[in-house]
Amino acid sequence: MKQIGSVIKNPEIQAIVPVLLDALQEPTKKTQTSLQTLIQTRFVHFIDAPSLALIIPVIERAFLNRSTETRKMAAQIIGNIYSLTDSKDLAPYLPSILPGLKTSLLDPVPEVRAVSAHALGSMVRAMGEEAFQEIVPWLMEHLVLESSPVDRSGAAQGLSEVIFGLGADRLEKSMKEIIDRSQQLDLAAHVRDGYMMMFIYLPISFGDKFIPYVGKIIPPILKGLADEAEFVRDTALKAGQRIINSYAETAISLFVPELEQGLFDDNWRIRYSSVLLLGELLFKVSGVTGKATTESVDEDDNFGTEHGLQSVTHSLGRERRDRVLSGLYMGRSDIAATVRQSALHVWKTIISNTPRTLREILQTLFTLLLGCLANANFDKRQIAARTLGDIVRKLGERVLPEIIPILERGLDSSESDQRQGVCIGLSEIMTACSRDYIIAFSSTIIPTVRRALLDPLADVRQSAAKTFENLHSSIGSQALDEILPYLLNAMQKDPNSPDTADDRHEYALDALQRIMQLKHRVVLPYLVPYLIKPPVDIKALASLTLVAGDGLAKHLPRIIQAVVIHIAEEKDSDVKQQHIYYAEQLLCSVTDVEGLSVIIRELEEFSRSPKVNVRLVAANLFLSFCKQAKGTYQQYIDDILRININLLNDENEQILNTAWDCVDVIIKDMDQLELQKRLPIVRQALRVAQSNSRERGRLIGLCIPKKGIGCILPIYKECILNGPPDLRESGANGLNEAINLSDAEALKSSIMNVTGPLIRVLGERFSTDIKVAILETLTTFMGKVGTQLKPFLPQLQPTLLKGLNDPARLVRVKAGNALGYLSQIHIRIDPIFVELLNGLKSNDDPSFKETYLLALKTCLTAVGSKISDETKKQVEQTLIICQTNDNDLVRQLTSNCKDTLSSL
Q1: pLDDT digit string (tens) for 663-676?
Q2: CA–CA dist 174, 210 (Å, integer)
Q3: Are 735 and 748 in contact (CB under 8 A)?
Q4: Digit-coded pLDDT (tens) for 319-329
Q5: pTM
Q6: Which CATH number applies to 369-524: 1.25.10.10, 1.20.1250.20, 3.40.50.300, 3.30.70.20?
Q7: Cα 306 from Cα 352, distance rounded (Å)
Q8: Domain ranges, ordered by start, for the chain
């Protein structure tokens, strides 16, 4: 090694040969010392091959050292050597140097990565890309590595230096791919992040040579600042800050327009990042740090200086400065809190006097505000409106003469979004102004609000309703007196008017509905007297009551009275039907307890009217109310049932059918417990209705063909089948009452639902009272429908014969009476008599013989002439035997049967 050192021609290396030899002999102890010596040596002469033979092994060893400082010095020395030696002398050492350099390029310490990247760039610049065929693919692989942001950062630094080493042509070729991939959303977030990092390091590598690309990379940086992945947003912010710190003075014209546009982006993240980057720029240009906290101070306190603002004006130009400051000021009213806070911080740090600056930029600010008020994006319109209110608060009401005419002209715009923005702006202004100033400008504001309330676009009308709310809060009843009559007048339809007048009616109605949603307590008392004047606009009433809130109940009596009378007096059936439809909507919109009570009370009153057309309207409204308002009138079911059952006594056929349908709708919607609970109410209501009936013993509403007792039958059926004992008896008695009030034709539709449950209950073990009630009801039903019960004869005959053997005498008597009715409709009556005779013979108990004889007499009376001669003989023979019975009553009843038989 000393011999090698003796032939070194470089005098600087020759002087430190002993240090290098020590490092080669004792690498653990002497490597760092030799590296420090190399770093401190000032090279003047060319480094020859023998010098490299001593230096390179030391550097190789240094790259393997754990010390950060050692690896950093090794990379630095490599970078310096490549500019002082011949590339052909270095080529043999490249395979041994690159692995250590790659490792250092991915080092966790940023300084090591930076020095290593610079060294790699120097090597590529010195030796050309041919010597590094594998380095670019390796860097590209690590640039998009998902697992490690450190690796991506090191690869980005290295790649930036390599591109710089290869020259401007290579940068031109690479930039399109870098820009495209940094904002390609279909790529993974870590891939976008890796390419975004290039924007941090390329400016460092290229310096001023990178200026032509600054304008091109601002859009992807802004897009990166709005990325869903937080680490991509962080990288984009660092890239933006790097651009500003590197080119604030030289490239303002390139990236300020992009940032200015970002202030008004639809995406709040881009607006936020644009504020941050503009803040960085303004801080740098004005000479302030921007690090002072402004969070704990009033928003009107400013920390900027006149000199700083002058510097900004000088750098940006007056026109651009006004646009940037206008955008920042609007950012103070942004809907996103982070944007508001950042914009306020930048504003307070740069601006020394807010009112004065506002007056300077007012014209530019108004132009931007009108543009935002006309924007299709709702957030932008909201921001612009808030800003208008803030301007009024800052500059005072004296700016109103400038603002109001501008907004008024905005309603003439063909852009619906601008018209909506005008309304939002007016609302904010009225919130910010005192009552006196609004009154002073009311002659201009009120016509503007009127026009907006009749705008063809629903969104504009909604915003105008909000404006009306603020106007009323400011000037009170004047807003009601000058706007509501205008809308009511617009609602008046002229049959000879063009279609546009109908549209105007709809717009006015919609506007009133939207106003009601916001101010129903104030507006409803004002509107009701107008709306119930003849001719009543029922559609308007229905629409407005939908949003009337809890204040509707006290106005309902007048509304319902006006509506019912108006419908009753309408002659055109189609129009009347339409009015009923709107009245139904009106009633169904009421859900509060007080309002429901009013509806029931008023409709009940009209159901008693001497006028048929009024009663019919009340019945129709009851029916539609019960159909559509299910679940809301539970506590009034008893009243509704009572009222409509009473209407089953009406003389008008339409009313009868409507009332029947109403009862049917209510009862069908009940569960088992509800049905059982309503039995007493229905029985009582039927008694009252029957007592008022024009036809004694008949209720005409229960005699409607194909309907009959079907509307109330589910209550009786449920009680008979599933109720407790007392309710079963009451249900059977109630059904008996209902059957008595109907007729045979009407009962046809209920035969199955009546007969089946009665037979089923008779076949089970129940108390005497229940069986008696069931048998009485069955007897009544057979007496009404007669031969229509033929399909049930196979079940009825054995059931009734079984009843003749019941322990209770009253049950046996009722079964015998029912058997008499059954024999009238039976096709083959002889078997009935055979069963009766067998019972007489087989029962020795006088009480049973007595009831069998009663049943035999009843059947002989009913159909005796139809029995065969053979059966007659059997009856005679059996009666002869019974006449010898010891019991006087049995003998007496036997004689009665013989008399009946002899008369046949």
Answers
A1: 999 998 888 898 99
A2: 13
A3: no
A4: 888 998 999 99
A5: 0.58
A6: 1.25.10.10
A7: 6
A8: 249-352, 369-524, 532-632
